[in-house]
Write a structure and sequence with these properties.
With about 300 residues, the chain is an all-alpha fold. It has 15 helices and 2 strands.
Length: about 300
Amino acid sequence: MITEPSIAAAPPAPGSAVSKALSKVIGRRYGESGAARYGISSEQFVELVAAVVARYAAAVPESDQLDLIAKLKIEDLVLARACSAGNAAAWETFLLRFRSTLYESAYRMAKNEATGREIADELYAELYGLPNRDGSRVSKLDYYMGRGSLEGWLRTVLSQHYIDRCRSYSKNVSLDEQLEAGVSFPAPLAAADPQPDPRLAAALEQSLDELCSEDRFLLASYYLDRCTLAQLARQWRVHESTMSRRLDRITAHLRKRVLKRLRATGLSTRQCDELMHDLDVRDLDVDVAAKLRQENPPAAFYKKGGSAT
């Protein structure tokens, strides 16, 4: 699987050439891309997508190039390029879609509203574009390639920005002062936001289908509805530790089923682990919420002894 490059990598050069057949295929996605709203012509759109194809699939068969074009998050890609170019309408769309999400993510990282807003504002400045040595405006959005969701890519960039900020702060402030100030030290995150392998989505979807109604309901309650262990334990009339062990068993079983299906496709154990590492299911083409809510929960929760409460 070809992965998204690090945001430190250079963006694709414009004017990348593709065959006439590929140009026609790219052109068919123009209508769904929303490029016309931002004043991007069909010719410019073909050039934009061709640059991505040239970066990732220049030396592969045409069938693989066609597959890449079909899977691109084309609307996100166009939005990112239009924002990078300074299009006001694109920025309005961008802020409506992502501003509140990024602020909330920044608040969670910093555990402080003022610091979170400052971090988010710093990132917006980089996304809008900072002048380089030549005085030209360079936007970090140029490095988004459309192979994963723009939202997922932004979360990664925000996390990386926060980590860099903490590292820079630690060079100038003693450890005691940082601890006094309540600075947290997050674990390093991957710099890239890879496009999830479709085999992973298929394995997860099939494994979710196999869950019983109780397990679906508990996962939905805990992960989607944000119910606490204490709330679920009271609802099912069991001890909180029992509920915790039950959820652990469900997620462990689900992970094993997904890994088993991935290995059945010919992937090695290492490749399977890499696919699932730091996975965000929101980037998969699977409606997890619908899967978990497709059946009503049973009326009883069974204790260890087998009696219903």
